[in-house]
Amino acid sequence: MRKPSHSVAPAASPTTEAASSMGRRAVLAAAAGAGAAALGVTATAAQARPATGRPTGRPVSVTVTGRPAAEAERLRLAQALRGSEFQPTGLYVPAGTPLSLTVQPQDGLVPTLWIGAWDYYGEVTEPRGYALTAGANTVTDPHGGPVYLTLTGDGERAGVLFRSGAVRMPVFTLGRTGEADYQHQLDTLTASPWVELHAPHTIMTLTREGALLYRDEDHAALLRLVETIVDSHARISGLDGSKPVHSRKAGPYHFTEVSKVPTGVGAYATHGYNGFPRAYLDRATTVEGLRTRGWGLYHELGHLHQQMAYKPGGLTEVTVNIYSLAAQRTLQQPSNLLTVDPATGLTVFQSSRAKFGTPGLTYEKSFGAYEKLVPLRQLELAFGEDFWPRLHKLVREENPQSDYTEDAKRYRALATYSSRIAGYDLTDFFVNTWAFPIDATGRAELAALNLHQPPVDPSTLSD
Fold it and tell me: Is the pLDDT of residue 15 over 90?
């Protein structure tokens, strides 16, 4: 796969604390959840349970379902980043090991095979793709890794029989795997250095060492929590299925443990996945950590929902937190915007308000990271919690195009789309109060909407 064209977006703040040591394993009761079939790949149970983690030649049969390509979904959703299009198999192939498989294109389409893990800053940065043909295939990958399939289409099916060369990974699938079964897999399927957690909208790929650190978690509860966070992002994005264009992204989101990140980066997002170093797993893979300290995951997942039309470069790390705040509200957490700065005794609502009208005020340079988020929250407070869902939907329906270099155009789009959704002229809010860089063309576009002034000044509102 080609290297992502979008620069990696780091978390709002770096994470440096080490992961805690593994506690005593708890064997927990199985919990019911959504079916694994939503992941698109199903394996025959008898064939998918070899007694050992070593390659034994026992075949594993999977069925893969056609879905729209990730780039087609990015364009439909008017987003900046592509999501994942991988369908997991639960298999791992060692480096240099011939993987023998047979493809049965039931509806005429042939899938693509992918081997490897995502790791943008690592020695091997991305999975390798292999075109398959109907019938027998043998693939030898120099690096090895988890095995995935993609099938570009719309509901078509293809069967793939993995005859030899692969081993099972330990896999917990929400709604199908009991906790005791998963713990047994961790104890017995030791040939795979990778472990995965699966849910309808989630693939979480962990190193074996990373998974063992928090093996005593309730993994059904963890995956239900991740699904809740994904759902919060879908709801604030207006992905309600009211029209085909407003359906959720095809397939799950991919969260991957990565080998390294640059200094100052706690986690990141780029095309196809979110990357988390081991030091972040205490928040990504524990129920309490993710529920109470998971802003980094909420934030990085948000990057995979950002729409291009109103995301100038200066807002890449700002509009992303529309989704982070939505996750906080869903989880009934206090808002990060209400955190009191111990040095000033002020929240960012208060500190930003004190800057209004000061000489030389500019949105991009005068306000801090969380202060820049305040006006986006104020639009919700003024015009309803459905403000951003409605704006996302309008942008998807009109799908205006802009290049990454067209920052002025995207700032104009933020102001004009916001005014259209609010039903009021927000020139004063954007241009005069918050000093957004709305150029003369943008001010003329706002005036041409012929809207009245809002009955309440949004800039006076706070949580």
Answer: no
